[in-house]
Amino acid sequence: MTKRLFLFAVLFVLIASSVSGQKQEPYTYYLFTYFTGNGADHESIRFALSDNGYQYRALNNNMPVISSADVSITGGLRDPHILRKHDGKGFYMVATDMQVAKYGWGPNIAMVLMQSDDLVHWKSSIVNIPQSFAAFKDVNRVWAPQTIYDESVGKYMIYWSMRFGEGADVIYYSYANKDFTALETEPKQLYFNPGGGATIDGDIIKKDGLYHLFFKTEGSGKGLKIAVSKTLNGGYVLRDKFVQQTKDPVEGSGVFKLNQGKDYILMYDLYTTGKYQFTRTSDLEHFQVIDQDVDMDFRPRHGTVMPITRAEAARLSARWVDAGTVMRSLKIPGMKPGKVDVDTVKKEVLAMLDVKSTAKRLSPTFFNFPGVLVSTKATGANVFSCTVKVSGKTAEVYQVKLVSAANPVLQGAYADPDIAYFADKKRFYMYPTSDGFRNWSGSYFKAFSSEDLQNWKDEGIILDLRKDVSWARNNAWAPTITSRKIDGLTKYFFYFTAGQKIGVASSDSPAGPFRDSGKPLVEGHPAGINRGQEIDPMAFHDPQTGKYYLYWGNGYLAVTELNDDMLSLKGAPSIITPDHTFREGAYVIFRKNRYYFFWSENDTRDENYRVRYGFSDSATGKITIPEHNLVLQKDAGQGIYGTGHNSVIQVPGKDEWYMVYHRFVYPEGIKMGRDAGYNREVCINRLEFDDQGLVKEVHPDHQGIKPVKL
Question: Which residue ranges of the chain lie beneath pLDDT 50?
């Protein structure tokens, strides 16, 4: 008996040693799960991969990886949270069962519970709160569920926000059953907000033995706060300070630990602007913005990140990565960020090089998708081929062409450009709408300057509505500028749209800062007008009369003279709408005794947004429409869409003219639907006239113009 016990003990030690000797594969990748918006299939779960926690690439071409229609009541899934099982043998994911596109903001009463062994195949269950718990039959919101393993009871705790009637949203919790198909305990309140206001979007992470609950509060101020507890399901004490590093509204915090080192990432959704912000922290108390290090080829809404192994990433890659996805991750020194257009049918790639690029040789790199091999071969000047082999799939060969592109002239999203030349500064200045904000919600204006129309210096923010303007906070659109000598000094006057009204600010420098006049200059419809908006001002100095005029309008075109102070209008405006094609964005120039009026037709969200023109003998007179008056339109063959809202600049002392305009962000804009209307970029092309003074059509392109010599 003793001998048998001894042999059994030896065998147990050998087995235990063998098991303990097996190393857990390290986490070297990250899986980002998210949704993208409120329309059509946007309310569906998507996946993206990263190998460093900062650069992410969408899987499945940024299309859903789970069908919302198949797994939810509403046909929509939002706010996904993903979690590795505590034993490492599978994954759980939970999401809000909600489709705003179809049903609006509620009521929504359910969440979806999902589970998978491999991150690829998922099975799901719906938890309808009012049906599951009689005490909660009057609930009208069930938002943003998340899951965490409760070590003290050996169960998975699900926590989410819930609301009765018009009361405040409260974070509740319940435990899932062992099959992760339902909730087995009646919901209890998890966090009690001392301020009594709404708390939503809870996100818990454990650090140094303490549970840190991040949440959004809407009671006293709006933003993200943290409450801390020694126990998972209660006792949270508020750290009463906001931790978001922005003045924009935020929600959907997601916290995860980096695979290397001791630091954490806190990311959150800037839901009113359509942007996402990443911050880094080592103590979950002090956060530093790291947006400059983050790169994503998609636009997420309220998502979460989970560290994964290389093998898990390879499984995802084999399922949802194709050669086109790999080619879209192409980077070359001197290439314009994001300017890679991939044609998966023709197997062709067009990549844009900055005209200022000094790269001496091609050094293409690609995102580090596991299980993917890429080989390149030069086939000509700025031309090479790529052979892409994704594990389990047939190799594909793409032809890559590099072109030197001056357009867009400004890096980033900008629109509605107004351009001017100031002789006293011997520079051109450009004033665009700061774009890329959801529903045109930008709140500041920037200026750019140049000596040659190609190389532009960012002069910074010249007017911030939220700091500098008392009568409007958002919708900073379509500015214009002019200068005038007053009391012997040159003053600059900046007219701008804010809150669908027109204001004016002044400065001693075209680079600002500008000081607002303190009230709107135009804030209501002109007499006889009952449509459109008071937007898109255009200031014009008439070289024949010396008068200064202001034009504006949406659906109509108004004009009136400015008083000598440039801060007020001289009399009621006249309505000079050219014809039924006029939508907005009027611009006026004077050339060879003729006044030219340019305007935009259609909606800025329309791919057929375009520019027309007419002319007159007066700055305020009747506008004549030529038979062929289309000046600028899309070029689908080049992937250029939404070309409009122009301004025009003359090179001083020469009959040399250029048109400045915006287009949908290239190349992804045309795929954004109506969101393309606030994701635009600025371009410049030559503007020419024929012998009769008629405007020749401008052909938009990527190459742009050569530097202009003054």
Answer: 1-21
